[in-house]
Design brief:
single chain; 196 residues; de novo design (two linked rop proteins); 7 helices; 74% helix; 0% strand; rod-shaped
């Protein structure tokens, strides 16, 4: 009898150890996925900050032009002050969309001034903004990929149970309007017509 009880206890202990190892592995996978997502959002934040660093250059370029452009720059300054490390992704996205709209308005209004439009400073600024916005798009995609993976992981069983117990919840995606985004024209002409 004692031998059977000892074997039963050993099995119970072995099952408990296996269960603990399984839970620890699940926990580590959730934490790793969450950390990858945090790293991606920090990288995205750095690229977004690089775009904001263009503002002093923009201010210098438009300083001699009408007040309407300067008003937009004042709006950007007040929004820069509103930025916070503790902002949610959706709040940051809304603020970045406002930045993009103001940048776009300024660049569109600058098109009215041929001497400004052809100045090297303006051309360099626009090229730099285009390069930064390509980086924003790349890092935004990377962030959204890690968000998608993280959200999918914590929705799957048995991870879902552990994630809810530990307070892990779904994270928001990030989609920002870019100033230099070009509209893609789609041509629906049937190419086969030329071959007939």
């Amino acid at each position: 009898m004692k031998k059977k009880e000892k074997q039963k206890q050993k099995r119970i202990i072995l099952l408990a150890i296996i269960l603990i190892i399984f839970v620890v592995m699940m926990f580590n996978k959730i934490v790793k996925s969450g950390n990858e997502n945090i790293k991606a959002v920090k990288t995205l934040d750095q690229v977004l900050k690089r775009r904001l660093e263009l503002i002093p250059n923009l201010q210098e370029i438009v300083r001699n032009y009408p007040e309407e452009e300067n008003v937009s720059l004042n709006d950007i300054d007040s929004m820069r002050e509103a930025l916070s490390e503790k902002m949610t992704v959706s709040s940051r996205q809304k603020l970045e969309d406002k930045f993009s709209a103001i940048f776009k308005n300024i660049f569109d209004s600058m098109e009215k001034y041929p001497e400004l439009k052809s100045s090297n400073n303006f051309i360099n600024l626009k090229n730099e903004l285009t390069a930064i916005e390509k980086d924003i798009e790349i890092t935004r995609r990377a962030y959204n990929d890690t968000t998608r993976s993280y959200n999918a992981l914590i929705k799957k069983s048995p991870y879902k149970i552990l994630a809810s117990i530990l307070g892990y919840s779904k994270r928001d995606f990030f989609d920002v309007d870019l100033v230099t985004k070009e509209e893609v024209a789609i041509n629906f002409v049937d190419r086969r017509q030329g071959e007939r």
